[in-house]
Amino acid sequence: MSLPPAKESELRQIIHDQLIKMDVHGRIREVLAESVRQELGPGQQLSEEQIMRALRRRGIIDDVIKELSFTADMSDKETASAPKPPVHFVDREPAELKKVNIDPSRRYLYLQVNGGKAFLEHLQEPEPLPGQICPTFILYMHFRNQRFRSKPVPCACEPDIQDGFLLEIHRDSLGDGSKMADATTLLSICDPIHMVLIKHDPSGETTLLASHFLEWRSVLSSPDGKISTAVELLGVGAESKVPVGVLNIKLELYPRLNQILSQEIVNTQFTLERQRTAEKERLFLVYAKQWWREYLQIRPSHSTRLVKIFAQDENGVNRPVCCYVRPVRAGRLLDTPRQAARFVNLLGYERAPVVGGGGKQEQWCTLLGFLCRNKGDCEDHATLLCSLLLGFGLAAYVCVGTKAKGVPHTWVMTCGIDGTVTFWESLMGHRYIHKPINPDDPPLVEQPKPTYPYRTVGCVFNHQSFFANCQPSDAVELSVFDLRDESRWKAMSEEAIKSVCSPGSTVSLPPFPPLCAPVIDAAVVSNDIELELRALVSAHRKDLDLSTVWDDQLSYLLSPALAAYEIERTTGISAGNEEFQDAIRRAVPDGHTFKGFPIHFVHRNARRAFATCLRPTGTEPIFSRGSERNTPDACLWNVGENWNTWRKPIRMQ
């Protein structure tokens, strides 16, 4: 029985990984060195039969056969074992095709991607070898509350992205949701298809390559209800005018329209929408300039304050900052505001890349680009957290100001009905209660000591409001956050903000995507990382002439501690410590001492986590020797990706 080439390559990769994990190559080298010393004279060479005999004598071959156990029926296999690594790329999506229920009363748009070309940055990219893990492209899409992603394909000058997506087109008005949209209704739906291209490196790093808004309504003028087009993707940030590559796209309507619109009608609609949007943006700009002049008349020093009215997105488009916030409901994915803060905190932090010097790159990412890349700047974290808190019914605002040493920063503020002001640090998940200092109080009056890291605040805003700080001092500790007090905060017109920032107000406003459930199995990925870490720790300790014995029972006993740490980070409440201490006391023999500390990561890269442990603050518990009075140390691992991914602890001796 012969295997298909793909299965054969996968089998080779499985065997290769198993040999590396068991350090078979090192053991073979030891056997060869010993055999050369004992059995060979000068000028002689070892034969293959002699090598195999020596390996059998040492039991190395038997160990490999025991580890490489296969069963004929894989469907009945327990899911507790770690999944086998794929050949070319890591695809966490199920391999089988998903069945889609088609509602015959609805209209659908089938978008098909038929490969790409002219990705010149990858012109010299070599063909991936069998078993080689290489960088991949993944295309993400959002259209009217529907999100999709393509299968990962190896990065290449002509990437083989072959995927199809069925997009449902429905009406927004009540009572019309079940009716099939006709040609006139489809023409009035101005939401574009947001396409985001992400590059995934084998190390787990992600790079936002392109963010494109596809106008799909040209298909309404096609006689057969289908069109093919080449979509040029442009870069992001400083490279927003530089082409990245071209995707071949085919659009098709199901079922076909009974009435075909002329190209002239479609083009007229596009022109009217652009003119209406341009006029609204022009009027808002005129109003913003006048508002800014009035703000400077209050106090000339206001010109140095961080009052951010407009911000640039990844495509280099200037938008009012209020457009980056909108109430987002997470459904059953996030249950509480504090859990939302924990979720945002676990998204990676990365400043926008800068070509050359000159300071920080200005870039506020759209929500889809931020979520798909799984990392962003402090502004991206703050706007997402504010949107989630608004969805939970809180009076939330994004604060723009500075922290220590005058570094620009953004964070979130919520105002309670009782006047309590709470700061939410979106990068760390911390909460601080703000109590202002009254500079007019006598010196003997005890003043509250700020615990937050913020120094100044220039403005606060959400999806409906914008307030600039016009108090004598913009220091956070001296500021009073009574936004209704016009002597302290200058407000923008809510009607002016609504004209350009409310959903559907302009065609240039990108729609907000919904949150999606995690696509990874936390238990399986946790086991994978534990196995990788065990192999890395064992190899490193072996280089230091230290032996390593893994205690699975103690590993399991450490799990409640990880659960307690996660609960404490989410809720601020510590629980379950008594049971954990009791279990550890029972497990540790008399006359021995247990030591351990938690390490938290926001990625799933075992090598990066291990490299962190090699730093001076983390080496002692992992690489120290045990003594008669002291058990070898233990280390707790809690590696989170998104909001609820857990890792098992490991025990070393």
Helix content: 25-40%
Cα Rg: 30 Å
The overall strand count is 23
Round the mean pLDDT to the nearest integer and report it: 81
Report the sheet-strand fraction.
15-25%
Terminal residue distance: 45 Å
Strand order of the largest sheet: 17-16-15-14-18-19-20
Oligomer description: single chain
Overall structural class, as computed from helix and strand content, comes to: alpha+beta
Query: What is the overall shape?
Result: globular
Q: Name the poorly predicted regions.
A: 70-95, 618-653
Alpha plus pi helix count: 16
The description of the largest β-sheet is: 7 strands, antiparallel
Show the helix and strand layout.
Blueprint: H1 5-21, H2 24-39, H3 48-58, H4 60-67, E1 107-117, E2 136-143, E3 146-149, E4 153-154, E5 162-169, H5 183-188, E6 193-200, E7 206-214, E8 226-234, E9 243-254, H6 263-298, E10 310-312, E11 318-320, H7 337-346, E12 348-349, H8 367-373, E13 375-376, H9 378-391, E14 396-403, E15 408-415, E16 421-425, E17 430-434, E18 454-461, E19 466-469, E20 489-491, H10 494-501, H11 522-543, H12 552-557, H13 559-571, H14 577-587, E21 598-601, H15 606-613, H16 619-623, E22 634-639, E23 650-651
Parallel strand pairs: 12-13, 21-22
Antiparallel strand pairs: 1-5, 1-9, 2-3, 2-4, 2-6, 6-7, 8-9, 10-11, 14-15, 14-18, 15-16, 16-17, 18-19, 19-20, 22-23
Give an overview in words:
There is one protein chain. The chain is an alpha+beta fold and 653 residues long. The chain is built from 16 helices and 23 strands. It has helices at 5-21, 24-39, 48-58, 60-67, 183-188, 263-298, 337-346, 367-373, 378-391, 494-501, 522-543, 552-557, 559-571, 577-587, 606-613, 619-623; strands at 107-117, 136-143, 146-149, 153-154, 162-169, 193-200, 206-214, 226-234, 243-254, 310-312, 318-320, 348-349, 375-376, 396-403, 408-415, 421-425, 430-434, 454-461, 466-469, 489-491, 598-601, 634-639, 650-651. The strands form six sheets. Strands 17-16-15-14-18-19-20 form a seven-stranded antiparallel sheet, with helices on one face. Strands 2, 3, 4, 6 and 7 form a five-stranded antiparallel sheet that branches. Strands 5-1-9-8 form a four-stranded antiparallel sheet, with no helix packed on it. It is globular.
